[in-house]
Amino acid sequence: MSRLGQIKGKLESLGSSKAPEVLFDRQLVWISLCLMLIGLVMVTSASFPISTRLTDQPFHFMFRHGAFLCLALIVSTIVLQIPLAKWLRYSTLLLSASIVLLVIVLVAGKSVNGASRWIPLGLFNLQPAEVAKLSLFIFMAGYFVRKGDEVRRTFFSGFMKPLIIFGVLAVLLLGQPDLGTVVVMLVTLFAMLFIAGAKLWQFIALMMVGIAGVVLLIFIEPYRMRRVTSFWDPWEDPFGSGYQLTQSLMAFGRGNWFGQGLGNSVQKLEYLPEAHTDFVFAVIAEELGFIGVSLILILIFALVVKAILIGKKALEANEQFGGYLAFGIGVWFAFQSMVNVGAASGIVPTKGLTLPLISYGGSSLIIMSTAVSILLRIDHECRLAELGIQNKEHTDNEEE
Fold first, then answer.
1. Where are the domains of the chain?
2. Which residues pair with residue 115 across a beta bridge?
């Protein structure tokens, strides 16, 4: 056969051969990358004024956020190679490390605006609360696998033990203080308990206790009460306790349907505090308008739906650890997004929680990127199981 005939035969075989089975969720990858890219653009836009004032360099926070983004992608690539069996095996060790970090931040943490939440590491400040979220959800997913029958049958040994562990983390977090993270962890934990099969009356009773506890914590701290009262009527004290929310609402009002245009926000000119971190959504609303805000919310909603569907597929494939963890990550992303967007738009009292994969902050970006990589790994192992390909790590565990 001539050389030309060989080439023709190869081209014909390529055109007629079936595409190889994709072993990861490409849509989840693109959704996450889109949110990260939007975050880089909006953090750059929102941080121009404060960056210029603090460093005489308008792109200071852009460079830092870009570095965090690169680091997050590197960490995510590494995490993607870790089998679920290893996360299950070392879940207790990971939770213990998180508790140690929370103790360290109370003893030698960096204080910003009256809150001690960061451990200086030179290149960036580590926020142990972000590590604690993910480590708690990983530990609880493993606990439900090991003690699933107890969770469904008994009250104390199955249902209260997880809450005692949560209580230890909550005490350390409230010492910083960081009530927002405690609420996110509590809501996600309740959702995971419900998915794991806890009895409905226990779930409702403890939910009421949790709500009562949060209300009590708000009442005993004057600054939290000021946040709540300013949330009810921010215009009563627009230059005091209601200042941040009124400035945020002005940003939403100026946004209209299509926004003022990228880079044209007025509120970011140091009228709105924390414009590139907790309140970046207000700058998005002002510059991109209702259409831009809607598209970003659709992307976040799609990511959450992906997490829930991956969890459902994992449970159907009898991969309980991955299923519980995927549901936990989905609820975590959904609730934290709801609180961030709600605080910026005046729906809930202001809380210092980041918008997933968008807000400025190295710890949040890296941990949430890690969570997305774990979702991809769960989906990957489910696809391997569907094709009858046994995971090597799973095989090694059975041999042990």
1. 25-399
2. 112
